[in-house]
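Supplementary Data S3. Sequence and structure tokens for construct A.
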Amino acid sequence: MGLFEKYAESIAIKDLNTQSYNECEQLYSNGNYEKALESCLRYSINTDDARIWTMIGNMYRFGYGCTANQEEAFTWLSKAAMARVPEAEYQLWQMYRDGDGVAKDPSEALMWLTKAANHKYGDAALDLADIYTLGELVNADQEKAVQYYKIAANAGLPLAECSLGIYYFSKCNQDVCYYYQAIKWFKKSAEHGISDAYYNLSQVYLQNRFPGRNLNEYITNLDLAARAGVPIAILEMGNAYFDGMGVECSFKTAMEYYQNPALDDCVDAQKKLGYIYEEGLEVKADQEKARKYYQKAADRGSSFACYKIGSYYYKNGDKASALTYYQKAADKNYPPALAKLADFYFLGEGTQVDHKKSYYNAYFASCLGVPNFGDLSKYKIGLREDEIRQIEQEIDQKISY
């Protein structure tokens, strides 16, 4: 065959590849998978278009227009991957990782993922960045993680944009200029639908080192995150109104945020609601409602709430129940609860008199700076010197840890 004939044949094959691919791709994109598979298989005999091999592999892998067949999918995707099609390389990473159509092989999986990422395939770059961040399959390497996050972010992946923002935000203490990089990537991520990015933006503007610390931008972005349903943003909006930070103080508005269903299991929100009702802050004081909210927080381990529940029972004459909740708070080293227990055991309220337990809690409260616990002489009554030293050594050792 002469040069002219070879050239003419190459042009014909190229035109055939383009025509074949366009037909198959249109059928595939329209969801007409049965015809797409038929066309792809027909054209695969006479063309060497690896994009068609990739479509065939996809259809066999996911059962589009046919019964799923992982082994067949692996065969076609391997051909496409060998031809350097990034999507096929990425799918081989998944198949070797999960053992779909081929034996599990982490090393082989990582090789194909790296190839796809280096070919600028966004999903692959994001996966590889996460691997380098977490140190899975490879040694953790932040610089390589950032390298691949940038590839994924430049491919328009919002999660990668958010991850880059987090990376630059983490370096802000080293150089104030990193704030602007963090803002840039968080804004891109937020614009692409990642609501957590609005919350992250709010935290950038809240930082004291940010030039001209901007509470207006903090509230604006925090509000956007809260409206998108980000729980921590809802809580912080409540706290902003509770404390009057960046907005005018309003306990009623704070309550609206704290009562959001997303915060039903949030200890801080339940504590604040309990306090608002206990103190009657822009609402009628209601001790029963206060107890209800404190109880929800206490059930989730809040030492402050346990102390408040103990005080509620004490005021209502149930000293045994008060003791139970004071003890729960004291077990978490909550100073006011330790002080209460010192007197409970000293006087025998809700329990028997126990001078060792009384002095234990009194000394512990004193070490933690509870007012009026400087002079502990009365709590030493009934104790030997060696018992006092043993208690003090035990507390001193606990505090030193």
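Construct B, processed identically:
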Amino acid sequence: MPVRRFFLATPPSGTVAMLGDREAYHLIHVLRAQVGARVELIDGMGRLWSARVGAILGDRVRLVEVALLSETAAPEVRLTLIQAFCKSDRLAWILQKATELEVSEIYLVHARRSVVRISRDRQPAKLERWRTILVNAAKQCRRSTIPTLHPPLDCREVCETVESALKLLLHASPEAMPLKKLLRGRSWPSVAFAVGPEGGWSGEESQTFLRSGFQPADLGSSTLRTETAATVAAALLRYELFPGN
């Protein structure tokens, strides 16, 4: 069985590190780890360490023999997902799969047709929950980097913020080119792709994206749920653009 991974919020001091909060709770109470148990640590920025449990100190765990195993370089292709808000279970699925498929950045958008609205006062707690989902997904798929999750924005703000060599608007329209055809035989150092809510982007939102340099692209004749579209698009981009695929 692979060695369990944990997220290390504070860099190690020499060969010693401390785990607290959810990570320590999971190690102590769920896995019931004993002193001497071997673990791996990630910092979400590409560094991976090996370590052993040195002591269990109440709700914290002291790790010893911490040694750097590897340091992941930045990916040759940077994927940015722009995702309209959707129901919480579907958004959790999207965050998990985006992590597994090596998306680098995620922007959440208050779309006109989104069925979910997150008030400003609820955003900090929601962001913490969503980032926990990303951390858990990274540990599960044994990825040493964690996608950057940005606070929610509106369509115009996202268009003004995102910079990528190729920007794609997933949108059913006569002008849309099949994503597979658009990607085949070409390469870009960075790609942003925008996935709308269940009801699709509004006409005004679509025009905002197009005026900002996004190209319309589609995923075929079937109407896909938003979580399916996000996953399929990320998988196609990874397959077509990442070296070695």
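The chain is about 30% helix and 30% strand. The longest strand covers residues 60-71.
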